Structures are given as structure tokens and as C-alpha cells.
Amino acid sequence: MAPHLLNFQPTTPSLSLGSLKWPNTLLHIPLVAPTNALRKFHFRCIASSRTNVDSTIARRSANYQPSIWHHDFVQSLNSKYTGEIYIKRGEKLKENVRRMLEKTSGSSSSLNLIDTIQRLGLNYHFDTEIKGALDTIMSIKDKNVCEVKDLYTRALRFRLLRQHGYEVSQDIFKSFTEEMKSGDLKPSMVKDVKGLLSLYEASFYAFEGEEILDEVQEFTSRHLIKALQGNNSIISPNLSKQVSHALELPLHWRVPRIEARWFINTYQMMQDMDPLLLQFAKLDFNIVQAAHQEDLKYVSRWWTELNFIEELSFARDRLVESFFTSVGINFEPEFGNCRREITKLNSLVNTIDDIYDVYGSLDELKLFTAAVERWDIKMLEELPHYMKICFLALYNTTNEMAYHILRRHGRDTLPYLKKVVLRYTFILISLGNEISKEASECLKNNNPDLLRWSSMIVRLADDLGTSTDELARGDVAKSIQCYMHQTGVSESIAREHIKHLISDTWKKMNKDQTAGVLNSHDHLSVRQKMLLGQVNVCTSMEMGLVFQTGRPKIGLCH
User: Is the pTM of this model over 0.85?
Assistant: First the structure.
């Protein structure tokens, strides 16, 4: 009997600075000096005073609502799926699915199986098998083989190969667009909603300048909307649900773990559903969720010990939301430490963002910026009390992170972490257990494109979702308002322009995914892992805004 599927509840991982607390006292971990022998951190207390806060400064407030995720509630989370009986059952089911993959490897049916496995959130168990199957499909000599396939399979093949970094041409859809323009497209193809949906999803893997895929996306989105609004006899309720889901946000832009939770419900309503695969998906989801809950409890203790909620009451208390991002980047159970570190950094980023955007004066911000740039603990005495709290948390967290990486992997990453604090750190950690020289050099060389595209998507997507509220509380103009001012257009037109910029930036990231994808050991290269981390950051942002604003995104890229 299939195990009961739990409701997904965001949970947050973390790393602790320690449980020591003194009134009016700050904890300091000294800088880690690179040595051949491992050192222990020495803790010392720095007395602080609240008297250096200028009470004459007019402070703004963002009026943030308190978090609904109270610490006591988080600590009460519990799951039976940590038990050995469920782990063993999962291993047996995994072997059965592996045999299914091996049996279909290289055939067109393997495409459907790979897609289903990915959407159910199970692909991390079968990276080697999936790569082998796609290698076989890619190596087929007869390039016309994809032309004789139905539209659904042709588009699915293209999407999976592009997703995994293989070079495949948009020209496989050239005949489709030619028939589309000439009006010779068969009526049966226009009514093939499943095929159009597959083609629509594939179009989001376009590169810059690929006009065929741009035309495909415009055509399929238009006809899919018509299918929803027209005669429902040509589309089943379950397929209608999938079309609405895709038009709201394409698969490529969704957080895999949240998509898995949604697709499990959808998959069990499909006529070709495999009971064994569904059972494994439900069990694995609950096992992974149990790991996430433990991560969340750990990071909640860290956050509570920092006491930012009281000490920096003007800032957001959004620990669970920060954890949501970390799950989007690395959801696999073995990356618990990664999720914890990322959550800590995300939480600190939110606080620093509020200091700069809401609370701090210009003179205070100059001092704080100088302290971070110099990474100098001696500058504490020049900072107001609330900035001391924040800077020490940042300083200690980063140093502790570097210490653990040095201890576990023998690599001194502190110079890189200092240089790119809060900018590259989560990428470095997302490599999990492979902190290699290649990774360090990748960061050292600054790889501007690696972060530029994802940073732009995150920034622009955030402006679409929050700029109105931020302007109301006195923030500076955002990208939407800047474009309105420069061009004299309305806000709605400016928003459409920003959406196009987001779409174009995704195309740049898609192109990067084909660069240096696989190494000789059948594993993702360091660059590819970093890029995938950036893609996942963007998907977390996109989905977070959908949840936050409740606004549909149909026609997002048109």
C-alpha cells in the first residue's frame, strides 16, 4: 500500500554560531589563518554599548509582518519517515525503477520515463542512467529520426537534451514553423493539445537569436489559451490542469521540489500512471521532507540564538522563506549542510538589505560598507550597536564556514569568501562535498557571466513583485519606474518590457548550460554545477513571487 503523501511544508536548514549568550555582549570568532594544521576557534567577548546609536536620526519602517513560523512550532515538526523501514523500502523501489530505465534505454519510451522521473523529483537517484540514455539518443546517426516522430515526442526529445546541456538544433522545428506561416498546418496538429504543450515547454530552452523557437512559443501559447477557453471536448480535465499550470509558469522556471509535489497529484490521475513509480515518488518525497524538517529545526535554533528578532526588530524575520530558496538550490538529503549554510547567508542578506534600504543613515552605511570591505574587526567600535550585531554575525558565520571547509576538504576558501561575501558564497557551498581547486579557481577568476544573468533575473523579478510596496515606504525607484521615466511609457508597458528582459536573460543562461557540461567521469563539471545553482536560484525567485503576489503569469514572455 502506497504511503500517505504529506503536505509540503517549507523547512529551513542552518549552521549554528553556538549557544552562548550574554546580555549586552557580542561573540567574536577571530579570522582563520591558513595553516597546514587545523586550528580551533577561540571565542572572546566584546562588550558593547547601545549608547552610540544616534537617536536624532529619522528611521524609516518597512512595517514587515511578523513571521508565521514560530520557533516552537518549527521545533515541533516530526516525521516517521526517518525510520529505517522506510529507507529500506525506498532502496527496493529505487532498484525496480532503475531496471525500468535500463530496459527502455535509448528508445523513445525512455524519453517519457525520464521526463516522468524528473517531474516526480526522483532524477537525483538516476543521474548515471539518465545520462547514458540521453547519450544513446543523442548518438543516433539518422538525424531525420526526430522528423518522423509525433510533435509531442520531437519536442520532448529537444527539451530533455537541451536541459542536460546537449547541443541540439532548433531546426528540428523548422518544418513546423514553415507550415504554420503558410497556413498548411494540419488541423489535427493544432488540436493536439498534448503536443502543443510539449512544444511550448521546449521553447523556453531557446538561445538568443533563435527565432524559430520564439515563433513556436508565441504560437503554442496562443493556441493553448484558446484550448482552455474553447470546446472542452478536445481536452481532458487533467490535461487542462497541466496546460493552466504551464501557462502560469513554464516547467523550466519552476522549483523542481515544489513541482514534484504538484506533479505527484497530477501523475496519479493519468491513465498511463505506473503504480510502482508513483509509490516510490510519494515515499521519496516524504523521506526528503523529513530531512528538510531536521534542517529547518537546526537553522531555527541558530536564528533564535542570534536574537535578531529583538535586537534588529526593524528587519525581516524570514528564516523559512530563506530556507525555501536553499531547498530550491539543493534539495537532495545529502546536501543538508549546504542548505543550512545558504539559509544562514540568505537570512543575513535580508537583514543587511533592510539596513541599507530602510533603517541605516548614509553615514552609518558608509561605516558598515568600510567594515565589510576591510573585513576588520577593529572597526566594530565605530559602528552603532545594531550594526555591530549584524557585522559580527556576518563575520563569524563566514569565518566559521571557511573553517569547516578547511577542516573537511583541506582548502582555504576564506580569501574567496572575504572577497565575495554574500555574493558567491552560496555557489561555493552548493558544490557540496566537492570543494576542489577547480571550484576555487572558478570563483577566483570571477566568471562574470556565471552570476550576472541570475542576478539580473532575481533583481528584475523582485521589482515586478515588490516595487509598488517598496516605493510606498520611500525606497528609490526600481527598474520599472526608471524605464517609465526614460521612455515616457505607462507602467503596464514598462512591466512588459521587464518581462522581456527576464526572458532574454534566461536565453543567455540556457546557452551557458551547453558550455563544459560533462567531464570524463560522467558527472557534472564544477562550472555546470555552479550554473545549475544559479538556475535554481532564479526558479526559486520566480515561484516565490507567484506565491507572494498571487498573480498569474500567463503570457509572461509575450
Answer: no
